[in-house]
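User: You have something folded?
Assistant:
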Amino acid sequence: MDVHNKTLKSYHIVGQALDFVPVLATGATDYNGYGAAGIKKAIAEAKRLGFEWGGDWGWDSPHLQFNYKGYGTDLKLDITKEDEEMTAAEKDVSTALQTTVKEQAKQIAALEKRLNITGKETYASGYAEAVEAAKKSGAITTSSDKSKIDLNIIQMLHNLGLLKKGAK
């Protein structure tokens, strides 16, 4: 088997494939998560739109490839040729993908806000007592830029009585 040639004929190289890995609510990757209901639904939608799923081959679950006209022949992906008018079916696929991307962008933004990834969100008032105790004990110097995880840890330390002055 000539691995070199097989690699050169990758659908990724011609822009007709992607790999994805499910992510848990904690933000951790879940390489065994392809059986989850939401992931199955996403895979089914991708297949409905014309993608092939590597999991159907039994060995490449992260892989999705778009084999509309065959390897490297999709004119919409070939920037060296003039763009042709899209067919109604292609427009439907494009619209569906654009809608999906917009919905996913909203979900990502909501998740980032929930996890306070940017550090710009204010924390819930329930954390106020624990945050103040952490500042007074010297465990933290500021209450800004704290993620949800940081706040949960601060709250646990407070609940355990470990945020007393001098208990550093």
Remarks:
- The helical segments are 3-8, 37-48, 88-115, 128-137, 148-159.
